[in-house]
Amino acid sequence: MDKGAVLLVLVAGTMFGLCVPFSKALIGGFDPIMMAGLLYAGATLGTGTWFLLRRGTSVRPVPARMERSDVLYLMGSTVFGAIAAPILLMVGLKWTAGSDASLLLNLEGVATAVIAVMFFRDRGGHRLWLALAAMTVASTILSYEPGGGFGGNGAALIVISMVCWGIDNNFMQKVSHLDPVKLSTIRSGIAAAFSLSLALVLYGGMELTVTISYVMLIGAISYGLSNVLFFLGLRHLGSSRTSTFFSVGPYAAAMAAIPLLGEAVTVQLVVAGALMAAGTLLLTRERADSD
User: Fold this and answer.
1) Coil, strand or helix at 145
2) Could you tell me the pTM of the whole model?
3) Cα separation of 109 and 232, whole Å?
4) What is the helix (H) or strand (E) element at residue 27, kind and residue range?
């Protein structure tokens, strides 16, 4: 296994996961759709600057021709992973504790693996389904509010966003041979333009504040740079294995959310975290056995 690619994915997962507690800390002043648009505006600015500065240098990759199928996969990736998933995540985050939401990000890995097995002819054994069961139970625990039933805190929306990112990851695998910086800039730019336009139509304009620059910085790192590193991991590891290592991000995010947001360590959080960790371990063993 390519250890360099694994390291890139671990860093990417941590960057992505930390977006949740930092976004949770700032989202009170923004509409969720606007928040998603600003995050991807920051991602576009970050990877776009990288793309322009790299031109004419020796690190510029050899251009690969984009086929018609590549365009379709890129558009599918943009719709599911850069438009639908972030909006659903931001809306769900409004109603969910940051530590709970962070752990729910683990579902992206298992969603990616299940979709890869069911629709993209990847291999999957019993550990994959055990991991799915463990993470489903953990998600149920996180979505339960005493006296309030299930799903009232936006957990269901976050789960759906993880499914969208699972679809996105499998589409991204199909175009991972192309320039990751260019692809990330294209998809981020389309997503930012769509989400910001939708937010302006629905909610009107917004006052320019310093906080906007903070949101865009989070987007540049957590969605821009992270996405490029994720693309590079996909190229060498494949979609399901990459998503397994990417799952380190939720644990980093959950630990950061507790001091950053002043959230309590609950029994629900501990039990769900243990189940998520078991599911992640099962996924790792599943991919190792398939080598």
Assistant:
1) strand
2) 0.82
3) 17
4) none
